[in-house]
Amino acid sequence: SAIATGRVLQVKQVTSSSNQTVTTPSYTAITFFSVAITPSATSSKILISCTTGVRNTTADKSNYLTLYRDSTNLGTGAEDDIWFNAHVSILDSPSTTSEVTYKLYSKTDSSGGCYVNGNGQLGNITAIEVAG
């Protein structure tokens, strides 16, 4: 029988208290915020959610966070030069039953820098498969 649309099929979560400094204006993978999931149907949606703390090392510079599916950038956001709790999420339609990996990426303004998940913060990235 068919699985009801909107039903949660599986949940994968990675938590980390590690931190990483990013000093480039090109997107850089945050190595500890990566989660792999294998959709059970091509019609499935994957809700990706990542919560972390971010602080810029240089005043008046911006930090950008985005989520990637494998090598595809799914969207972007910007924040400023204070410690803040950041949450990024997106509902993705990978249209595959092969394993996909979602990662948090970050970049800064030219000559800036930022700390991701610093100050002993416990952040996480979560993938939730929802029947489509």
Number of helices: 0
Average pLDDT, all residues? 87
What low-confidence regions span 5 or more consecutive residues with pLDDT below 50? none
Q: What helical percentage do the residues reach?
A: under 10%
| Strand proportion | over 45%
Structural overview:
The protein contains no helices and ten strands. The protein has 132 residues and is mostly beta strands. The strands form two sheets. Strands 1, 2, 4, 7, 9 and 10 form a six-stranded antiparallel beta sheet that branches. The model has no long low-confidence stretch (mean pLDDT 87).
Short summary:
The chain has 132 residues and is mostly beta strands.
Lay out the secondary structure.
Blueprint: E1 8-16, E2 20-22, E3 28-37, E4 45-56, E5 63-69, E6 72-79, E7 84-92, E8 100-108, E9 114-116, E10 123-130
Antiparallel strand pairs: 1-10, 2-9, 3-8, 4-7, 4-9, 4-10, 5-6, 5-8
Provide key terms for this protein.
132 residues, mainly beta, 6-stranded antiparallel beta sheet, 4-stranded antiparallel beta sheet, elongated
